[in-house]
Amino acid sequence: MTFCCYSLGCKANQAENDSIAELLVSRGHTRAVWSEAVTPGREAPGAVIINTCAVTGEASRKTRGAIRRARRMFPDAVLAVYGCFAEGGEGTHPMELADVTGGTAGRAAFALRVEAKWIEKSAGKPAGKPAAMPRA
């Protein structure tokens, strides 16, 4: 899977995205640079991971816009949204656009859920169900 990450808010959010990216890369996936992924004519990523922020009203507004924009730009990608905005609160309706959500804890488990959802979407069957073995 090719994936890209986008962070809103503090530098800690960027570091968290880097940690998730390292885990996914160690599992054989490829990280695309966000600015290249959104360039017209480029192959769309299989997953878009957004680390959100809700510290201020402006941060929440930017987060809602980023979620909507990512879904619009990459309709077939797994849209994975986590962070403080994703934990809930007023005006979080764009979260309904996400395929995978997570809060501020459990980054490794979140990354594995993103991977599982990508496998599910790309295979066209629910995650966790192995492909049937052909009969001899």
Topology overview:
Blueprint: E1 2-7, H1 11-26, E2 30-32, H2 34-37, E3 47-52, H3 57-73, E4 78-83, E5 100-102, H4 107-123
Parallel strand pairs: 1-2, 1-3, 3-4, 4-5
Describe what this molecule looks like in 3D.
It is globular, with a radius of gyration of 15 Å. Helix 3 (57-73) links the parallel strand 3 (47-52) and strand 4 (78-83). Strands 2-1-3-4-5 form a 5-stranded parallel β-sheet, with helices on both faces. By secondary structure, it is α/β, with parallel strands linked by helices. The chain has helices at 11-26, 34-37, 57-73, 107-123, and strands spanning 2-7, 30-32, 47-52, 78-83, 100-102.
- In whole angstroms, the N-to-C terminal distance is 31 Å
Number of strands: 5
Content of β-strand: 15-25%
Determine the structural class based on helices, strands and strand pairing. alpha/beta
The topology string of helices and strands comes to: EHEHEHEEH
Radius of gyration: 15 Å
Q: What about the largest sheet?
A: 5 strands, parallel
